[in-house]
Amino acid sequence: MEIWELFVVALMPVLKTLLIAIIGLFLAVDRVNILCAAARHHLNNLVFYIFFPALIASGLVNSSTEISILSLWFTLVSILLAFIIGSAFGWILVKVTGAPKQLHGLVIGCCAAGNLGNLPVIIIPATCEEKNNPFGDSSTCLKNGMTYVSLSMSIGAVFVWSYVYNIIRAYGRKDDLHMKINSTINEQQCDKGSEIFSGGSTEALLSNSIPCYEVHEAPVEQLLGSSEDKTKVTIFKKINLQVNKLLRIVDLTILLRPPTIATIVGLTIGFVTPIHHFMVGDNAPLRVIANSVSLLGEAAIPSMTLIMGANLLRGFRRSRLSLWLIIGITVVRFIILPLFGVLIIKAAKLFGMVGSDPLYHFVLLLQYAVPPALAIGTITQLFEVGETECSVIMFWNYIAASIGLTLWSTYYMWILS
Asked: Is the separation of the CB atoms in 172 and 385 below 8 Å?
């Protein structure tokens, strides 16, 4: 394909996303008011519990059985590296710009988590359907490409709903937690350590002389009291105290949430051949289930994009987000990460870690050049933290993606063709 044809192929998916976002913005205007705050809340719940898990599961269920999942192990490594590099630069960004603490999780999440869902899902079919695409036969390209994209999307979803979810939760709830604690200091003191310890609470070792709020700041040695009391506390109880403190910061129950469960189910059905043949195909006995799940999954992408567009209206009216913060996130996502991506994938090819399929290499490179994940907007609405700021970040990053992602996709296809 000519360079201008590659450019057009790369541009179309981004323009489609922006168009749907504009429709969401229109539906949120006061005179229309279809996507009001309550409607967005309910639609978010549908996306989180139904549509997005169905999209993940259907993508994996319909994956090609000709490709071994073990041969795609570098997908996990690549996404992990993208999250680590993005998080590092996100942390630097919040320190340099002096962003409010409640937005630290949002900024780091936007730098770390890319849109591994709807954009690659649109880009790969659009590329494969071109007659002179750089990846060979259209049908084979589409089948294999959707396998790569589905796995990438599933792993990305697990990271988003575990790492990004928890980091936004931790920073977003910090101030609220201190306010609640301070409001109760004058009303009561903590119970005696021995009384609380018997109930299994993390505040177990507090004495009456220590106010409740100090449990979050005091070291273990201080909480344990005198040296005589320390001898009465077993190592197991000390470990239990530390584990409970960690669980207050990291919500491990997210590992049992719908996106993660859908990933496990989809991988099981998609890559265990007997089960796959039982559910997928024209003659499969349970094909109606797989088809129904696919139908539900198709609603995820437009729903998330409409929500993003609807949130833009609120963001423009109320957000005071720093311009330098927006520019910083854009630079991380469309300059720094793509450059690291090229170096990482070239090194992986050199050492034979990614096979020889250029389409697989293209999908891996896309992981570094996409704008922030739309699921971040859903997470901010679930916690009601940084919703307006997230909308503004998303808007400008998706505007930038119309240029950045298009140019990077064109470059990727050119060097791989």
From this structure: yes
